[in-house]
Amino acid sequence: MIFSDHICISCDKRFKSGDDIVVCPECGTPYHRECWLKNGECINEKLHENGQSYKESHEEIITEENPDLENSENNGEQKTLEKAICPICKEENESFATRCKNCGERLKTSEDLFNELMSLLEDAEKTAESNNSGRTKHSDFVGFSNEQALRFLKKNTMRYFPLFIMFSRNEQVGNNKIFSFNLAALLFPPLFFAYRKMTAACLAFLVALGALAAPSFIIVAQKRKLEFPWFDIAAIDTDSMLFQQIYFVCAILSYAIQIFAFLFADWLYYRHMSKKIRRINYQCGENVAQTAHLMEKYGGTSVSALVSAVFVYTFVGMLTVRFLITSVFDNLL
């Protein structure tokens, strides 16, 4: 019998893959080895008094709390997202498709997918609660529930939710795999973070990339004969050895930052989400209304922040060029 996601009745902690598990030789109740040694015997007295086994009692609990579960298992049925049938061409599409792969007709909105996923999640949590004998609500995250993660994400949950579950499980088992691939973060790192309301990360990437773009901006400005009131950009010797070295280093660092965003933007977003939700839970406690308000405030996406980031990026780039002209490139004039 596999005990993943079952609960040790001694310490009330969920068993994880790789745990050293000991089972009672009489009733089969699982324990962490250290819990078994600490107790010295099985403490599941109810099973011993009734002459039952852990497996039998576990199956009874699942059947009582989920009467439809046995029928669905016998019929080979499993509740999943239904296939999306196109109303125009009748083509069968994947459950997560928003448009028909054959004719392009819109099938579902992101909100529809979100609601379906929430429904499946609620069913999964009810089943998990039964598997754990009602001791704890199942969650793939530490410090907050799956539902809270979905409500925080809001947009593009079909991509981020399973990815963040993987990050969470890797953390719990000590796996250091934290990279994924994010094309939007590769092309426009500051804009991606701004859209996801990650202000600190957005500003950090804005400043770094704005500074590193200064040499390229100077070259383009000279070719297009642009003039600026605070300095004579045409006077800079872009063919000098010093300028070429600075240009090369800035280009390499800029590519390195973009590759970093490409590989680790999703993980940074996961850490941001985890930190925010735990802080909200700590501040609000059982106050549902306040929790919902803060989840709305810090979660989801922001088009206004995205637009602001575009203007700030341009402004920061101009200020950076001015600073570099008056300091680093002063000897090139």
Task: Give a structural overview.
- The relative contact order is 0.09.
- The chain has helices at residues 33-39, 45-50, 54-65, 67-74, 110-131, 146-153, 157-172, 183-187, 189-195, 199-212, 214-223, 241-284, 288-298, 303-326, and strands spanning 21-23, 30-32, 84-85, 92-93.
- With 333 residues, the chain is mostly helical.
- The chain has a domain at 183-332.
- The strands form 2 sheets. It has a two-stranded antiparallel sheet with strand order 1-2. Strands 3-4 form a two-stranded antiparallel ribbon.
- Helix 9 packs antiparallel against helix 14 (303-326), helix 10 (199-212) packs antiparallel against helix 12 and helix 11 crosses helix 14.
- The longest helix has 44 residues, at 241-284.
Largest sheet strand order: 1-2
Spans of at least 5 consecutive residues with low confidence? 60-66, 68-80, 132-136
Largest sheet: number of strands, sense, barrel closure: 2 strands, antiparallel
**What best-fitting shape do the alpha-carbon axes yield?**
elongated
Averaging pLDDT over every residue, what do you get?
77
Radius of gyration: 28 Å
Order of helices and strands: EEHHHHEEHHHHHHHHHH
The number of helical runs is 14
Count of individual beta strands: 4
> In percent terms, what proportion of residues is strand?
under 5%
Class computed from helices, strands and strand pairing: mainly alpha
Query: How many angstroms separate the termini?
Result: 77 Å
Helix amount: 55-70%
